[in-house]
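Recap quiz, item 2
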Amino acid sequence: METARVGTVDKREQILQATLKLFSSEGFFNTSIHDIRREADVSIGSIYHYFTNKETLARALYDELVDEMVRAIRAVILEQDTCQERCRAIMRFFFSWTDSNPQSMHYIMYARHQEFMPEVKPICSSEPFFLVFQVVGEGIEQGEVRAVNPAVATTSLFGGAIRLIHLYLDGSLEGPVEKYFEETWQCGWRAIAAATSH
Amino acid sequence: METARVGTVDKREQILQATLKLFSSEGFFNTSIHDIRREADVSIGSIYHYFTNKETLARALYDELVDEMVRAIRAVILEQDTCQERCRAIMRFFFSWTDSNPQSMHYIMYARHQEFMPEVKPICSSEPFFLVFQVVGEGIEQGEVRAVNPAVATTSLFGGAIRLIHLYLDGSLEGPVEKYFEETWQCGWRAIAAATSH
DNA sequence: GTCTATACCTGGATAGAC
DNA sequence: GTCTATCCAGGTATAGAC
């Protein structure tokens, strides 16, 4: 962690950036260490100095991005009070992050992580999704959300947004994706809102 | 196409079945031709007799499954009259197909096809999804569905279902997935139904 | 049409100089 | 810490017998 940061950007970060670019556009398996070496403009030796192998590199990148997402969701939960406000802010974050950082979103949401990181839990049962699941679960308890299965409620609320983001990341939908936010949110919330809420 | 089918199951089919099993569980890149050879209990020579290369094999499997899906959706469209009935039947098909044929569903919906079939269109812009898109679009024109962006309407209606199916295929949700159908459908339709419809 | 044996090469990882 | 050169396994695809 305490690598020198003298003037030039540190190499570790350089490598991670190149990796993100290539993994998100070409995929893990279509990206060789040699490709990363070229893109990052470092030597193979440096890559293996900072990361023990290709999988570790993928994993480090994944963990950083998941962490970033978790921090954002946690912040939202602290700032907002009701389930509705929290979910709305979380969905907005997904949209704005997609526009500002499509590669990160692509890598985190789209890649089949288990195919190259056997030990990692599927993204849908990882921490960010668990947080969202909890928020929705509380909404059910409070009566803000209709009494349906919590998994169904969560997927029904966010499924549309995620699907739309996939469509965009695929190139099947023109961006910026934020312009679809309001409508998507309205649909999602309508799907699960308790009768009193709308 | 006109391969002999004398008594024993033809080898082409044997190979496709083995491929489906391995690709859906291990992924395209983690499955070698040798693995397929072993699983299908044929020789490498046979595989290359029926398929020019690994990518062609993946593609043939993909095309067959997409075709099956398209036929099912087409049948639904013929049988049902309203947008609501059609969408409900299509969603039901997704759920029941997931239960009866999880490997096919996994391969068709989950794999990052573009990573190994560069020329294939992303699944969300492929024919089955286009059919669904059309059905929803007509629903908007007929006033059955609220006047929102058609892409938003389609993803809002089916996003929850697809997400839930992913969750199940990931092993994050216990099956059979059909038990979640009714609730998921209600949420999905509620998301986009015109005011008069419910 | 089916098989085995093998050619060939990509690409992950290491060695070791600086 | 950074680099280049190199090793070597694994995997796709082919050759050619039967």
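The domain at 6-51 of chain A is CATH 1.10.10.60 (Arc Repressor Mutant, subunit A).
The mean pLDDT of chain A is 93.
End of item.
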